[in-house]
Design goal:
heterodimer, A: about 180 residues, alpha+beta, 2 domains, 4-stranded antiparallel β-sheet, 4 strands, B: about 475 residues, mainly alpha, Formate dehydrogenase/DMSO reductase fold, 17 helices, disordered C terminus
């Protein structure tokens, strides 16, 4: 991420506030069309198509969960196999040590456990949470209403196209309730 | 509509709607968050009474647990041949109750049932607390609970390892996984609402507490995108998990060779029974909660109606299970199997068997009637009856198969002692204590998901001239 003039002057970006999700979605689309790339949209509930509108295409949650699930599956089975054949071989009526059908339930539970843990922890890690401080909360109306009933779009200062006056004017043209500068 | 008005009035919108009229994103937050953030003087008196009674019940667990640890499992009524008494009955019952929570939050999420939204958080909490009760029983039943960690495979100086072919070891993995995954699912679902609470809280300590729990959630579109995928995958993972948990619990019985336990119908019949009792418990808890906190326009008759129908459906699967048990014991031609069933119906525990048929099969048939499903007192009554019925089912399964051994010389009887009852009452008290505290301290309805419902309903609301945006702030 290259540091721009605005970055150095303690500006995170410019933020517009909207009343409805539809307005935010429209604004996000127009901002992307205008050539801005470094931006984020904030809403009190998930809005279909919003992430795509700001140019966010891929997340790797499913991949992380797949890896977690596979390691749970392989790790669980290996543990049981090792216990039953090497660590504590137990002859039950002459049955084979690797009686794999009996290992299925625990292998299954280990798969689910690791997949679920990696889903939750992976999501939090990729979202960089917990995050004790973030500049967007410096905007008063954001910290009061972004999680309740208002919809925000922030064009960030490290965008190559960012210019305080122009970007501000651009956002004001999108019919927002308010436009505010976001200090770092 | 003003927030203060919303706190007082709550009119059930009837069996067709999942949310009352006049809500917008802000008022729905204030309504649900208000239960948590309101000053302590405004807490309904019924809540205090419930908490007090539940806390008194909890003392039964403390007293019973103390006496058990001091004297040993002999203080319970378990005597050979009945080595599995109340402990296992209660374990299976509590685990089963948990299942409806996961069903509502995971399976109905995958099936895109919009009515799950108002009750999923609440029933997930119920799952957690019920599984916590269940988990205590096998540990207490071991006799030396402080050695409970021996169940877990870990490198130890004795070079002993658990037997991975035993359903009892499967149980350890299934129940601990279930508890962990339920906790994750519940907490991940809470994060956006904790952020709303952080932003709505007035007092500093509330802001701090909710702020720390929300972990800096700011509702970024990128975050929501990953969040929704993670939540959906958790739902997808929890669905087979919930089926596996009661299947493994039923293996504890069906893998043994005892008449009445050794049947292949057990896994599906246990899972259906679990969901049956779970829905009964959700209904039992939801009816007073929605009344005391004036949430009738968020947990509506539609929710209760859907849950009643699911109770009826799963109840019929359970009834089919009973029929198959009877049929197979006759069809097997095995004298021990035949004797087991005749003994159930006519032996020393026959009264409880017929009570079970009455509670689990006959009375719930009244739910076919729309009038019963939409009468709060009748529905509440049926849900209590089903709770009792499902407990009796576990009692009958555990006790009647054990008390008549293969050899008449080793026949016996099981009589629960006062300590058995104390521990059962104690877990009920503990469960209710946790539930009452939960309803008061965390948003018990998923706020952001209700906002989503409002968003999807918005065009229809506008048609009905109940547009959410003009109503705001007036």
């Amino acid at each position: 991420m290259s540091e721009t003039f605005w970055d150095r002057h303690g500006l995170h970006g410019v933020m517009a506030r909207f009343e409805t999700p539809e307005q935010l979605l429209r604004a996000a689309n127009e901002t992307y069309r205008a050539g801005y790339r470094k931006m984020d949209a904030y809403s009190p509930m998930p809005i279909e198509g919003l992430a795509e509108a700001i140019g966010f295409k891929r997340h790797f949650v499913s991949l992380v969960v797949l890896i977690g699930g596979l390691s749970g599956c392989i790790g669980g089975f290996t543990l049981l196999w090792w216990i039953a054949t090497i660590a504590y071989p137990h002859n039950v009526g002459g049955r084979p040590f690797v009686s794999w059908p009996m290992f299925i339930p625990i292998t299954f539970e280990c798969t689910i456990l690791l997949a679920a843990l990696s889903s939750a922890l992976g999501m939090l890690a990729m979202n960089k949470l917990p995050m004790p401080y973030h500049p967007v909360f410096n905007v008063a109306s954001f910290s009061e209403r972004a999680s309740i009933d208002r919809f925000f779009l922030c064009i960030e200062a490290n965008d190559p196209k960012f210019d305080l006056a122009q970007t501000r004017a651009f956002l004001e043209g999108l019919d927002p309730e308010e436009v505010a500068e976001v200090e770092k | 509509m003003k927030t203060e008005e919303l706190e007082k009035q709550a009119i059930d919108p009837g069996p067709d709607k999942i949310i009352g009229p006049g809500y917008n994103y802000a008022t729905v937050t204030d309504k649900i968050g208000g239960v948590v953030l309101q000053p302590i003087q405004k807490t309904p008196r019924q809540w205090w009474v419930t908490l007090l009674l539940a806390f008194m019940g909890l003392q039964g667990l403390l007293a019973g647990g103390f006496w058990l640890l001091y004297k040993g499992v002999g203080v319970w009524g378990i005597v050979i041949p009945v080595a599995w008494g109340f402990a296992i009955v209660n374990f299976v019952w509590w685990i089963g109750i948990g299942h409806a929570g996961t069903l509502i939050s995971a399976i109905l999420l995958l099936l895109k049932q919009d009515w799950r939204t108002s009750i999923n958080r609440f029933s997930e909490a119920m799952t957690l607390f019920a599984v916590a009760q269940a988990g205590m029983f096998p540990i207490l039943h071991m006799g030396r609970p402080w050695l409970g960690y021996w169940l877990v495979p870990y490198p130890n100086s004795m070079w002993l390892w658990p037997q991975p072919r035993s359903p009892l070891v499967w149980d350890v993995f299934a129940v601990t996984t279930y508890l962990t995954v339920s906790l994750i699912f519940w907490f991940i679902g809470l994060i956006p609402d904790l952020a709303s609470m952080r932003d709505r809280a007035k007092q500093q300590w509330q802001k701090l507490t909710f702020g720390m729990l929300a972990m800096g959630w700011r509702g970024s579109a990128k975050h929501w995108s990953r969040y929704q995928m993670a939540y959906l995958l958790l739902g997808g993972l929890a669905t087979p998990l919930v089926v596996s948990v009661h299947t493994v619990v039923s293996f504890d019985f069906s893998v043994s060779l005892l008449p009445g336990w050794h049947t292949t119908i057990f896994p599906p019949y246990f899972v259906a029974g679990a969901i049956y009792s779970g829905f009964a418990m959700v209904v039992t808890l939801a009816i007073p909660t929605r009344k005391w906190w004036h949430l009738e326009d968020l947990i509506t008759m539609r929710h209760l109606d859907c849950m009643a129908k699911l109770m009826l459906g799963t109840g019929l699967i359970v009834a089919y299970g009973y029929m198959m048990e009877a049929f197979m014991s006759w069809y097997s031609g095995n004298p021990h199997e035949m004797f087991m069933y005749i003994n159930r119906a006519t032996g020393p525990y026959a009264f409880f068997f017929w009570m079970l048929i009455l509670c689990n099969i006959l009375i719930p048939q009244s739910l076919w009637s729309r009038r019963v499903r939409q009468s709060i007192p009748l529905l509440f009554f049926v849900s209590i009856v089903v709770n009792i019925g499902m407990w009796l089912e576990r009692f009958i399964i555990v006790i009647t198969s054990l008390h008549r051994d293969f050899l008449p010389s080793s026949w016996g009887m099981y009589y629960p002692t006062v300590w058995d009852w104390a521990v059962l009452a104690g877990t009920l008290g503990f469960f209710l204590t946790l539930m009452t505290l939960f309803v008061r301290t965390l948003p018990s309805i998923s706020i952001f998901e209700v906002r989503e419902v409002l968003h999807h309903l918005a065009p229809h609301i506008a048609d009905d001239d109940m547009s959410p945006s003009p109503a705001h702030g007036d």
